Amino acid sequence: MTKLMTTTEDLMTMLDDMLREPTAFWNEFYKEREKEVPFFVNAPDENLVQYFEQGLLQKGTVLELGCGAGRNALYLAKQGFHVHAVDLSSVALQWAKERAMEAQVHIQFEQANLFELPLKENHYDFIYDAGCLHHIAPHRRLQYVEIVQKALKKGGYFAVNCFAENGAYGGSTISDWEVYRQRSLQGGLGYTKEKLQAIFNAFQEIEIRAMRPIEQPSTMFGLDGFIVAIFKK
């Protein structure tokens, strides 16, 4: 179908269609719960636990971007947060809702595309992303940062967990320009400390480090080949 592009969003949508995994992809991905996917475990990220133990995070309102099957959302709710957890996949959210019901915690789950999600300005004390950023194409990256900046309260925290470059599970090192030449994110873009510092330079850097791998089963989750970061607005 040919569409006349008359707005910036028309252009963004066209580029999305070139690169984005469709919602059906993620529904199929979460359909088989027994397959050996490391983050299908029901344990929070080790860096998230660290932020609480260090006293960085207090009770408040949290937005989780790309919550998947809800393992981090459950942890945040148990720490006393009011949790708004968003994901593209209805199948992932159904699994997350079942886990929340079993744990007897209340979480506001929402199926939505981040870039179409109406968010209140200066509303959240904490925003967490454990897997969205490396699937976001370069043309949407600036908008992603603007969404976080707008939705987060002054003095609030933003944390991200994403592929490091050349990680065991992903982390392509191709340039942003090459993404469009190849019409592919190659399974997910890889990040370095320097790249995260450049992307989130409007925030105060608190910590950027490699994720600590944790052998399962455990009360926490961690994988080699990931980089974690926390910033303050």
TrEMBL record:
One term of GO molecular function: methyltransferase activity
The keyword RNA-binding is assigned to this record: no
Keyword Repeat listed: no
Every Methyltransferase domain range: 62-156
Top EC class for this record: transferase
Listed Pfam families: Methyltransf_25
EC number(s) stated in the UniProt entry for this protein: 2.1.1.-
GO biological process: methylation
Key words of the record: Methyltransferase, Transferase
Gene3D superfamilies reported in the protein's UniProt record: Vaccinia Virus protein VP39
UniProt protein name: Class I SAM-dependent methyltransferase
